[in-house]
Amino acid sequence: MDDLNNLQKRVKKYNEILQNTRTYRQEWKDDLKKMIKDTLQEIIDNTELEAEINLKEHLENLEAIELSLGHVKSGLYEEINTKVKKHLIKHNGSLIYQQLFNGKVIVLIYFPAIEGYGEPRPPKTIAIYRPEEIKPAFILRHMEEFIKDVSDWEDYDDDEPSKKIGFKLNFESEEQS
Q1: For 96, which of 69, 82, 108, 162 could close a Cys bridge (C-beta 3.0–4.6 Å)?
Q2: CA neighbours within 13 Å on the CB side: how many for 81?
Q3: 46-57 pLDDT, tens per residue?
Protein backbone atom coordinates (compact mmCIF):
# COMPACT_ATOMS: atom_id res chain seq x y z
CA MET A 1 0.00 0.00 0.00
CA ASP A 2 2.40 2.64 -1.21
CA ASP A 3 -0.56 4.96 -1.66
CA LEU A 4 -0.78 5.38 2.12
CA ASN A 5 2.52 7.27 2.36
CA ASN A 6 0.97 10.67 1.62
CA LEU A 7 -1.94 10.00 3.99
CA GLN A 8 0.46 8.91 6.75
CA LYS A 9 2.34 12.22 6.41
CA ARG A 10 -0.90 14.14 6.66
CA VAL A 11 -2.00 12.20 9.73
CA LYS A 12 1.37 12.84 11.37
CA LYS A 13 1.05 16.57 10.64
CA TYR A 14 -2.52 16.55 11.98
CA ASN A 15 -1.41 14.91 15.23
CA GLU A 16 1.38 17.50 15.61
CA ILE A 17 -1.16 20.30 15.19
CA LEU A 18 -3.43 18.77 17.83
CA GLN A 19 -0.49 18.53 20.23
CA ASN A 20 0.41 22.15 19.52
CA THR A 21 -3.12 23.19 20.49
CA ARG A 22 -2.78 21.40 23.85
CA THR A 23 0.66 22.94 24.39
CA TYR A 24 -0.50 26.48 23.48
CA ARG A 25 -3.50 26.24 25.81
CA GLN A 26 -1.26 25.13 28.66
CA GLU A 27 1.23 27.96 27.99
CA TRP A 28 -1.65 30.45 28.24
CA LYS A 29 -2.65 29.04 31.62
CA ASP A 30 0.87 28.63 32.99
CA ASP A 31 2.54 31.91 32.00
CA LEU A 32 1.18 33.90 29.09
CA LYS A 33 -2.06 35.20 30.61
CA LYS A 34 -0.24 36.58 33.65
CA MET A 35 2.59 38.06 31.56
CA ILE A 36 0.17 39.91 29.26
CA LYS A 37 -1.91 41.19 32.17
CA ASP A 38 1.17 42.29 34.15
CA THR A 39 2.73 44.00 31.12
CA LEU A 40 -0.47 45.90 30.36
CA GLN A 41 -0.76 46.93 34.02
CA GLU A 42 2.85 48.13 34.02
CA ILE A 43 2.12 50.25 30.95
CA ILE A 44 -0.94 51.77 32.65
CA ASP A 45 1.07 52.42 35.83
CA ASN A 46 3.86 54.18 33.92
CA THR A 47 1.69 56.39 31.73
CA GLU A 48 -1.24 58.69 32.33
CA LEU A 49 -3.56 56.27 30.54
CA GLU A 50 -6.93 55.84 32.21
CA ALA A 51 -7.69 52.22 31.48
CA GLU A 52 -8.74 49.02 33.16
CA ILE A 53 -7.88 45.41 32.52
CA ASN A 54 -10.72 42.91 32.38
CA LEU A 55 -10.33 39.16 32.23
CA LYS A 56 -12.94 37.29 30.21
CA GLU A 57 -12.77 33.77 31.60
CA HIS A 58 -16.28 32.38 31.15
CA LEU A 59 -15.22 30.03 28.31
CA GLU A 60 -12.34 27.66 29.04
CA ASN A 61 -9.59 27.87 26.41
CA LEU A 62 -11.29 30.87 24.78
CA GLU A 63 -10.28 33.36 27.44
CA ALA A 64 -9.45 36.98 26.74
CA ILE A 65 -7.66 39.90 28.34
CA GLU A 66 -9.21 43.27 27.56
CA LEU A 67 -7.54 46.59 28.14
CA SER A 68 -10.50 48.97 28.06
CA LEU A 69 -10.51 52.73 27.94
CA GLY A 70 -13.98 52.57 29.50
CA HIS A 71 -17.39 53.97 28.74
CA VAL A 72 -18.56 57.55 29.11
CA LYS A 73 -21.44 59.82 28.21
CA SER A 74 -20.74 60.79 24.63
CA GLY A 75 -22.02 64.33 24.98
CA LEU A 76 -24.76 63.41 22.50
CA TYR A 77 -28.25 62.85 23.73
CA GLU A 78 -31.81 62.40 22.61
CA GLU A 79 -34.25 64.82 24.19
CA ILE A 80 -37.19 62.73 25.40
CA ASN A 81 -39.01 65.78 26.77
CA THR A 82 -38.00 69.11 28.29
CA LYS A 83 -36.85 67.43 31.51
CA VAL A 84 -35.47 64.10 30.31
CA LYS A 85 -32.46 63.53 28.09
CA LYS A 86 -31.31 60.07 27.01
CA HIS A 87 -27.52 60.15 26.75
CA LEU A 88 -25.74 58.08 24.14
CA ILE A 89 -22.91 56.07 25.65
CA LYS A 90 -19.46 56.00 24.07
CA HIS A 91 -17.15 53.03 24.32
CA ASN A 92 -13.64 54.51 24.23
CA GLY A 93 -11.95 51.51 22.64
CA SER A 94 -10.24 48.29 23.71
CA LEU A 95 -7.13 46.25 23.06
CA ILE A 96 -7.90 42.53 23.25
CA TYR A 97 -5.70 39.45 23.61
CA GLN A 98 -7.95 36.45 22.94
CA GLN A 99 -7.26 32.76 22.81
CA LEU A 100 -8.44 31.12 19.63
CA PHE A 101 -9.88 27.61 19.42
CA ASN A 102 -6.42 26.28 18.53
CA GLY A 103 -4.60 27.92 21.44
CA LYS A 104 -3.05 30.69 19.38
CA VAL A 105 -3.71 34.29 20.45
CA ILE A 106 -5.35 36.95 18.32
CA VAL A 107 -4.69 40.61 19.11
CA LEU A 108 -7.52 42.99 18.23
CA ILE A 109 -8.23 46.70 18.44
CA TYR A 110 -11.84 47.68 19.06
CA PHE A 111 -12.33 51.27 17.97
CA PRO A 112 -14.35 53.80 19.90
CA ALA A 113 -18.06 53.76 19.11
CA ILE A 114 -21.11 55.71 20.15
CA GLU A 115 -24.22 53.63 20.69
CA GLY A 116 -26.98 54.49 18.26
CA TYR A 117 -24.72 56.69 16.13
CA GLY A 118 -23.75 54.99 12.89
CA GLU A 119 -22.26 51.56 12.53
CA PRO A 120 -19.30 50.71 14.76
CA ARG A 121 -16.10 50.15 12.85
CA PRO A 122 -15.16 46.45 12.72
CA PRO A 123 -12.28 45.43 14.98
CA LYS A 124 -8.78 45.62 13.56
CA THR A 125 -6.69 42.46 13.74
CA ILE A 126 -3.09 43.25 14.65
CA ALA A 127 -1.90 39.64 14.33
CA ILE A 128 -2.32 36.05 15.41
CA TYR A 129 0.55 34.65 17.49
CA ARG A 130 1.72 31.37 18.90
CA PRO A 131 2.11 31.91 22.66
CA GLU A 132 5.92 31.82 22.59
CA GLU A 133 5.94 34.70 20.09
CA ILE A 134 4.29 37.21 22.43
CA LYS A 135 6.88 39.24 24.32
CA PRO A 136 6.55 42.43 26.41
CA ALA A 137 8.14 44.48 23.61
CA PHE A 138 5.34 43.35 21.25
CA ILE A 139 2.71 44.30 23.81
CA LEU A 140 4.24 47.77 24.03
CA ARG A 141 4.07 48.09 20.22
CA HIS A 142 0.46 46.89 20.26
CA MET A 143 -0.34 49.58 22.83
CA GLU A 144 1.33 52.24 20.68
CA GLU A 145 -0.71 51.16 17.66
CA PHE A 146 -3.88 51.05 19.75
CA ILE A 147 -3.38 54.55 21.16
CA LYS A 148 -2.56 55.89 17.69
CA ASP A 149 -5.71 54.33 16.22
CA VAL A 150 -8.07 55.56 18.95
CA SER A 151 -6.44 59.01 18.81
CA ASP A 152 -7.01 59.10 15.05
CA TRP A 153 -10.65 58.11 15.63
CA GLU A 154 -11.12 60.86 18.23
CA ASP A 155 -9.46 63.49 16.02
CA TYR A 156 -11.30 62.51 12.82
CA ASP A 157 -11.70 65.14 10.16
CA ASP A 158 -11.16 65.49 6.45
CA ASP A 159 -7.99 67.60 6.69
CA GLU A 160 -5.76 64.61 6.02
CA PRO A 161 -5.02 64.15 2.33
CA SER A 162 -6.70 60.99 1.15
CA LYS A 163 -5.65 58.79 -1.69
CA LYS A 164 -7.82 59.33 -4.70
CA ILE A 165 -9.07 56.23 -6.42
CA GLY A 166 -10.73 55.66 -9.72
CA PHE A 167 -10.05 54.34 -13.20
CA LYS A 168 -9.27 57.67 -14.81
CA LEU A 169 -7.22 59.00 -11.89
CA ASN A 170 -4.96 55.96 -11.78
CA PHE A 171 -4.20 56.13 -15.49
CA GLU A 172 -3.67 59.89 -15.51
CA SER A 173 -0.98 59.62 -12.83
CA GLU A 174 0.83 56.92 -14.80
CA GLU A 175 0.73 58.99 -17.99
CA GLN A 176 2.12 62.04 -16.21
CA SER A 177 5.10 60.08 -14.84
Answers
A1: 108
A2: 1
A3: 999 999 999 999
